[in-house]
Amino acid sequence: MKTGNTENPLIIQSDSTLLLDVHNSNFTAARNDIAPFSELEKSPEHIHTYRISPMSLWNAASAGLGADHIIELLEKWSRFEIPENIIFSIKDIISRFGKLVLKETADTNKLLLIIKDKIIFAELSSIEKLKKYLFPVSEGFMVNLVDRGTVKLELIRLGYPVKDEAPLLDGDPLAVDMRKTTLSGFELTIRDYQNEAADTFCGNGKTGSGFGVIVLPCGAGKTVVGMKVMNILKTNTLILTTNVAAVHQWIEELKDKTDLTEEHIGEYTGDRKDIKEVTVATYQILTWRPDKESDFPHFSLFRKKNWGLIIYDEVHLLPAPVFRVTAEIQSMRRLGLTATLIREDGRQEDVFSLVGPKRYDVPWKELEAKGWIAEANCYEIRMDLPEDLKIEYAVADKRKKFRIASENIQKIAIVKQLIKNHPEDSILVIGQYIEQLKKISKALKSPLITGRTPNPEREQIYSSFRKGKEKVIVVSKVANFAIDLPDASVAIQVSGTFGSRQEEAQRLGRILRPKKRNSYFYSLVSKYTTEEEFALNRQKFLTEQGYKYHIEMWD
After folding, report:
1. Which of residues 305, 332, 362 is at a domain's end?
2. What are residue 432's phi and psi, to 5 degrees?
3. Does residue 524 sit within a domain?
4. Which of 73, 77, 266, 347 is the most buried (most CB within 10 A)?
5. 310 and 409: one domain?
6. Do residues 542 and 549 make contact, with C-beta atoms less than 8 angstroms apart?
7. pTM for the full predicted model
8. Are residues 383 and 412 in the same domain?
9. Are 289 and 319 within one domain?
């Protein structure tokens, strides 16, 4: 084994972390080599930290990378000798991928789970929970078609990823072509990474492709990737997204950038129930049921058409009940789109098993450097609590402390000053607590959008904002997801959800769409309170993405 080269940029540690020197001349080449089999954890100014995990290695294995090649790449860039436990771990984890292979059988209702390793076969045979799904045969186990997803999920939780080579259904055909000029009058250019992402997902139709997740920053055009996949596959498509505004956004984008018309596109929401060749629905309508004991009546949507593709927009928000139905529809092509694979409930394995492995991603800062997303400046502004709140804060429980700090009345004056500092910008003021937002909206004389704002009113405000008639709008967390606000260049966060990394990715993404001016992200935090503690999570996320994070005190 090679002993390394002290001029190399990579330090490999025995805890499976990889430290990459940003200032080394081989930084870019090394980063490109290790990215397919490791997860970027943080990327501040000088040292980027990656981690090798079972999920990252299985993602790599699903893309065809072997253990020997991964070790060769580590040896190529390592500054020191690779720890022996890392080599052993890589070989052991990678070896598990492909030991369980799911294949079709002559019986269209059954699949064959091939297991050649007698020890693994014996282990799985002894697990009581699996006996109702796995039926022993000479080559492994027979699996009922309807249990395809459930079996994959149970097995990955045991440390055995399934290589799914059972065929996918084509669905009913539908010609979908991309326009050369959009309806809005602009030349349509599919960016190189958007084409690469779509091609990687589709994989020329070969076995083992057509399911998985594309990870791209907000503002990088994930919707275009989805449409390009539809263009390649040319089949009936069901698109699931987070809210009614996002449904309408998808429909407008489809009409603007493809040759699909209203005759082909249906809306399936609380307001309308149109099912057409391309249908766009919300997660909320799918997970609605009369009471906790009832079934989900709208799950029937998955069977109303012969879908050839399902697109899960913001797949990191996929509700738990939809995982259940996703487990049942493993014969359909499944595309997940997201800016972050972080799930606050820790169910990344569910996404891997039921939607598919990560097929493509691009770092935020790389797209920023190429001008595809705006350069962002991130600031945390800290201010004192008013004297009359300090005793109330001192005796409150932790949740109440957070709310008192979040609703600090001094934030209103700071918001006004920041808006005054950005007279030419379109500005979002984002918060968690409705009463706080109402006060800010009144003080600014700016419109407020919350979950209770009727959809027609909400869309009219968004339209005025896009056209520049409204320079400032105040929004609750409904604006976190899948809302197209292309002209927003400043976001002022007055309160958040306990420093959620997932939320931070979305809120920063609101201002990252490419534009001539730089973008600014301000987070207002009360000094010496629990809000500072949660702000550390936000700071960590932003610095991990490579953004400089400035902290300023407000007098």
Report:
1. 362
2. -105, -35
3. yes
4. 77
5. no
6. yes
7. 0.76
8. yes
9. yes
183 occurs within a structural domain:
no
Q: Do 15 and 109 reside in the same domain of the chain? A: no
Nearest CA to 237 out of 298, 176, 148, 164 is that of 176
Instruction: State the virtual CA torsion across 382, 383, 388, 392 in degrees, nearest 10.
Output: 0
Q: Are 84 and 119 in the same domain?
A: no
Which of 51, 77, 96 corresponds to the end of one domain? 96
CATH code for the domain in which residue 442 is found:
3.40.50.300
Number of domains present in the structure of the chain: 4
Residues 159 and 137 in one domain: yes
CB burial class (10 A; 0-12, 13-18, 19+) of residue 14?
Answer: exposed
| One domain, residues 319 and 241 | yes
List per-residue pLDDT tens for the chain, 555 residues long: 566 688 999 999 999 999 999 899 999 889 889 988 998 777 777 898 999 999 889 888 887 889 999 999 999 999 999 999 999 999 999 999 989 999 999 998 899 999 999 999 999 999 999 999 999 999 999 999 889 999 999 999 899 999 988 888 889 999 999 999 999 899 999 999 999 999 999 987 667 789 999 988 777 889 999 999 999 999 999 999 988 878 998 999 999 999 999 999 999 998 899 999 999 999 989 888 888 888 888 988 988 899 999 999 988 888 888 887 888 788 899 999 987 776 666 677 788 888 988 888 887 777 877 878 777 788 989 999 999 999 999 999 988 999 999 999 999 999 999 999 999 888 999 998 999 999 999 999 999 998 888 878 888 998 898 888 999 999 987 755 545 554 678 889 898 765 455 555 556 665 555 556 678 889 899 999 988 887 777 676 666 666 677 889 997
Question: Would you say residue 4 lies in a domain?
Answer: no
Q: Which residue has the tokens 């920023």?
A: 368
Determine contact, residues 309/143, Cβ cutoff 8 Å. no
For residue 444, give the nearest of 466, 472, 468, 422 by alpha carbon: 472
CA distance 141 to 125: 9
> Sign of the C-alpha dihedral, residues 231, 232, 235, 238?
negative
Mark whether 346 and 386 lie in a shared domain: no
Q: Within a domain: residue 170?
A: no
Helix (H) or strand (E) holding 267, with range, is strand 265-268
Full residue range of the structural domain in which residue 240 is found: 192-362
